Design the sequence.
């Protein structure tokens, strides 16, 4: 029994015998995947290492691949190798020395499915180049992958046929064909799509993401435990493959996230529904940089799609917010909106950049960070007056007016306790420390007034220099009476 892989058009013999030859690379035909000019050769070696018989017919020319024992000595060690040769029959009786040994590719090409995938992908590429579309060729069986009896192993003029001896691994690959190639699935038109609603495609039995390029399976994302909302099919230069036709988990995740820059509102709505339901998903792990490019404004078409997709998923008036900030939803609801929390902060950030209504667009700056603003206490005002008088005395107010003072109540329990902050020309102090003028309140006032004057952040060089200068200028002892 043999697995037969057939496509219209007779491939050149050199396509299987000369390293680097690729008639698909730079052909300019959409839907093709080949480019390296080494895959067919690696596939031949992979099958030979597995001990399987392989016959290829380029039109009426038969290619049979075998190995020849040789000994190589580098002056230090002697090693036995197996040189790969190709015996021609039909239109020629030559034996070609292929210039490589059986160990070529042995480190990366370790699975029979990789070799079989290469031959099927080559057949699809040639069909697309020959016919401009694979579907008619599939329907009339010009493009064909099937199991045949030994007696059916023969040439067909005008076609390329690859015959691989069947063993359990080859048989399993054949059974998985609709999952490995969208072209042979129940919906072959999916080979031209990008975001594929989840179907029965996984080989592992999981519901993780299946990743394709031009309809050819590249990777099943078994590294992740989360189910995915979509499977992914990349085109052109959207996903880089290495020479073993694989791609890294990191590259795939970034490329998958970028597809949502061009997604339709309906496609986005499916992800938003999953995220709002707080379902763990592959998509929830995406980075905001890839969802919406950080260094330029998202395109108008992306903004409109994201806004429409959010409304489809959550309804009009819904406000997207980060579920990790529990107080935010409460603030949003008090303002008359419908909060929709999600755990995927990257999606919240990207959605905000696309104009989706988020907490930042309906809450003021204090509410968004979990602070309720209160009137300043007498003690807080007096502490700022003391600090301001010091700075005026040493001429370090930099011509600014004394800041307005306020207090705040912390609604959210954060990892570190904040005692004061400066914002929009005002200084604020936590209500707990603002009941009486004491050393700690004045210390906090000095820090926040310094932020107000310098506009610098904690630990910045400018901020440190300003504080050191204050110490130097206030070098004369001053007695202050604390309550």
Sequence:
């Amino acid at each position: 029994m043999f697995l037969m892989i057939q496509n219209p058009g007779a491939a050149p013999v050199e396509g299987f015998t000369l390293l680097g030859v690729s008639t698909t690379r730079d052909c300019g035909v959409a839907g093709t995947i080949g480019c390296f000019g080494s895959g067919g050769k690696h596939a031949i070696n992979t099958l030979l290492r597995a001990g399987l018989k392989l016959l290829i017919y380029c039109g009426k020319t038969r290619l049979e691949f075998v190995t020849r024992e040789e000994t190589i000595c580098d002056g230090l060690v002697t090693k036995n190798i197996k040189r790969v040769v190709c015996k021609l029959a039909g239109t020629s009786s030559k034996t070609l020395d292929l210039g490589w040994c059986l160990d070529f590719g042995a480190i990366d090409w370790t699975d029979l499915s990789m070799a079989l995938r290469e031959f099927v992908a080559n057949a699809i590429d040639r069909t697309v180049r020959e016919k401009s579309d694979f579907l008619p060729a599939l329907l009339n069986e010009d493009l064909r992958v099937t199991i045949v009896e030994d007696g059916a192993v023969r040439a067909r003029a005008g076609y390329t046929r690859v015959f691989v001896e069947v063993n359990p691994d080859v048989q399993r690959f054949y059974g998985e064909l609709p999952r490995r190639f969208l072209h042979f699935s129940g919906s072959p038109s999916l080979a031209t799509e990008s975001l594929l609603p989840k179907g029965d495609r996984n080989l592992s039995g999981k519901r993780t993401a299946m990743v394709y390029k031009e309809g050819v399976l590249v990777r099943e994302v078994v590294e992740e435990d989360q189910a995915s909302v979509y499977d992914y099919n990349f085109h052109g230069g959207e996903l880089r493959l290495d020479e073993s036709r694989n791609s890294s988990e990191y590259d795939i995740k970034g490329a998958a996230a970028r597809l949502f820059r061009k997604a339709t509102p309906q496609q986005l709505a499916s992800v938003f529904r999953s995220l709002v339901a707080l379902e763990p998903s592959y998509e929830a792990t995406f980075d905001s940089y890839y969802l919406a490019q950080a260094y330029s404004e998202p395109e108008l078409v992306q903004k409109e799609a994201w806004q429409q997709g959010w409304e489809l998923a959550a309804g009009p008036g819904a406000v997207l917010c980060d579920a990790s900030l529990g107080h935010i939803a409460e603030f949003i609801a008090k303002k008359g909106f419908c909060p929709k929390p999600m755990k995927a902060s990257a999606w919240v950030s990207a959605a905000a950049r696309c104009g989706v209504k988020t907490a930042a667009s309906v809450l003021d700056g204090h509410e968004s960070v979990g602070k309720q603003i209160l009137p300043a206490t007498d003690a807080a005002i007096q502490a700022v007056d003391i600090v301001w008088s010091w700075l005026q005395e040493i001429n370090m107010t930099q011509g600014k007016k004394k800041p307005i003072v306020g207090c705040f109540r912390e609604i959210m329990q954060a990892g570190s306790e904040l005692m004061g902050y400066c914002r929009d020309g005002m200084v604020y102090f936590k209500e707990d420390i603002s009941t009486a003028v004491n050393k700690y309140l004045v210390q906090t006032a000095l820090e926040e007034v310094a932020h107000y004057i310098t506009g610098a952040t904690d630990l910045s060089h400018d901020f440190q220099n300003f504080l050191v200068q204050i110490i130097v200028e206030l070098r004369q002892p001053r007695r202050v009476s604390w309550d």
The chain has 17 helices and 17 strands. The chain has a mean pLDDT of 90.
